Amino acid sequence: MNDKLWKTIQISSFILILFIFLGTILVSELEPKPDGGWHATFPSKTVQMTALGLSIVLFLTWVFATYVRREGEVSLRAAKRGVLFIIGMGIFYWMLQQI
To answer: Any transmembrane segments, and where (predicted)?
Structure first.
C-alpha cells in the first residue's frame, strides 16, 4: 500500500472541505444589525446545493482514506467500516432531528 498517497488524499480532501465551508461563509453578504451583530445572507440555493454535494463527496473520500490507512490496504473490510461509519452518522443525524 502506498501510505503517502492515501495520506495526501485524506489531508487534501479535509482541507478542501474546510475551504468549501469557509468559501460559502465568505461569499455570503454580511449586513450589520442596528442592535449589534451581523445578518448573513447566504448565496443562492444552487450554490448551497453544489457546496453540499461537493462536501459530501469529499467527506466520503476522507472517511474511506482514513479506513484504508488504518487497515494498511485497500480491502473489503475498509469499505465495510466506511459504510458502517456513514450509516452511523445517518442514524445520529436522524436522532438529532427527532429531538
So the answer is: 9-27, 47-67, 79-96
